[in-house]
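Support request from a user on the community tier.

User writes: "When I paste my C-alpha cells into the form, the page sometimes reloads and wipes my input. The last time it worked, I copied everything first. Here is what I submitted, just in case something in the input itself triggers the reload:"
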C-alpha cells in the first residue's frame, strides 16, 4: 500500500471531526457575532424563532460537514465512507439524545437538533453517492 494512501486513510476521521467542528464554530460565530457559544443548547432564547432556525441550520451543517470532509479525505471508496460516516454521526446523535434525556429529561429542541445533525449528514451522503454514481456512468 502506498504511504500517501495510508496517511489519507489515517487522516480521514480526524478530517471529519476537525472539519465539522470548524464549520460549526464558523457558523456559530457568524450567527452570534463575536459571542462564541454552542448555541444549539445554551444560547437560544425561545422567543426568537430566527435564532432557533439558525441553530438548527448550524446542527445540520455540522452533520453535513462531518460526512463531507471525511469522504473528501478518503483516497478511495468515497461512497462507502460517506455512508459509514453518516451512520456514525447519526448513531452518535441518537446516543447524545438518549444521554440527554436520561440526565435532564426530554427537550423538544434537543430532539430537533439531533434530528437536524443526522439529516444534514444523510443528505450529504446521498449527494456524494449519487454524484459518484453519475461519474461512473
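"...and here is what came back when it finally went through:"
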Amino acid at each position: 500500500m502506498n504511504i500517501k494512501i495510508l496517511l489519507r486513510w489515517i487522516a480521514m476521521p480526524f478530517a471529519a471531526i476537525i472539519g465539522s467542528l470548524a464549520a460549526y464554530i464558523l457558523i456559530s460565530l457568524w450567527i452570534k457575532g463575536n459571542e462564541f457559544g454552542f448555541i444549539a443548547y445554551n444560547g437560544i432564547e425561545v422567543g426568537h424563532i430566527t435564532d432557533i432556525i439558525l441553530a438548527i441550520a448550524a446542527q445540520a451543517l455540522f452533520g453535513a460537514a462531518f460526512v463531507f470532509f471525511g469522504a473528501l479525505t478518503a483516497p478511495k471508496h468515497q461512497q462507502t465512507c460517506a455512508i459509514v460516516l453518516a451512520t456514525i454521526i447519526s448513531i452518535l446523535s441518537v446516543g447524545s439524545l438518549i444521554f440527554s434525556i436520561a440526565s435532564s429529561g426530554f427537550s423538544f429542541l434537543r430532539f430537533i437538533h439531533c434530528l437536524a445533525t443526522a439529516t444534514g449528514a444523510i443528505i450529504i451522503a446521498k449527494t456524494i453517492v449519487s454524484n459518484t454514481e453519475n461519474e461512473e456512468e
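Agent notes: The reload is a front-end session timeout and is unrelated to the input. The CA atoms of residues 41 and 110 lie 7 Å apart. Confidence is low (pLDDT under 50) at residues 34-47. Escalated to web team.
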